[in-house]
Amino acid sequence: MVLVLSCNLSYGKVLFVCDPYPPFTYEREGKLHKGVIIELLAEILIGISEYETKSIEWHTALKLLEKGRADITGPLFKTLERSEYLVYTEPLYLERFSICYLSENSESKFSNITNIVELYNEKVGVVKDFYYGEELNDAIRRNYVRAVIVKYASTNLKILLRGRVDAAIFNETVVRNLISSNPDVAGKVECSSVPIDPMQLHFGISKKSVLLDDLDLINARILDLKSKSYLKKLRDKYSLDRLKISRGDQYITD
What we know:
alpha/beta, D-Maltodextrin-Binding Protein, domain 2, 2 domains, seven-stranded mixed sheet, four-stranded antiparallel sheet, 28% helix, disordered N terminus, disordered C terminus, Solute-binding_3/MltF_N, Solute-binding protein family 3/N-terminal domain-containing protein, signal
């Protein structure tokens, strides 16, 4: 399959904004220089636009997109609030959630949770401003879950290891990467799937961005790359399989 892309380089570079969120984005000197999403961005914008990146707080990134001062971000889940100022691309892939706990507590209730209600009154580490789906986010807002809110996923892992929380919730790609980057942690932490339906991750494009002129082409490129398993290869590249995520007696490794 050959894709013929229009070339709108005349409108200059577009701006990608996001916070550092390995393995999706890695920061260096205020820019996001590598990661799953950065490599994917480079591929889908070939022949469409040059781009630059800026590492910025997630809340601020969304504000810039809302005001039209940035063009694109990702990966992110769809929410009604964001849909007011973002247009979502074709889905990139399904993301699952994992709840992690110390291996010494492997007989704990966290090893086989089947309902969000089972997290009520538990002290659980979560990342600030992260969307875990309406049910869990609502439970956190209402303090049904005693959330310890941290800024970064890496901090979430640290507070778990230090015993400051009973468990910590991550998206699966991120926790795989964290364990791969810290192999000495692998034997200390176990994870099981959180009973939240997997959700699609997308790029989000500002409704005020010139990139919308090429939305059909961007979506065509995403679908083409997915058909070639390019996204899976990127995830595998940045998330070595040093951690098994259990769901009952099954292991999720795909």
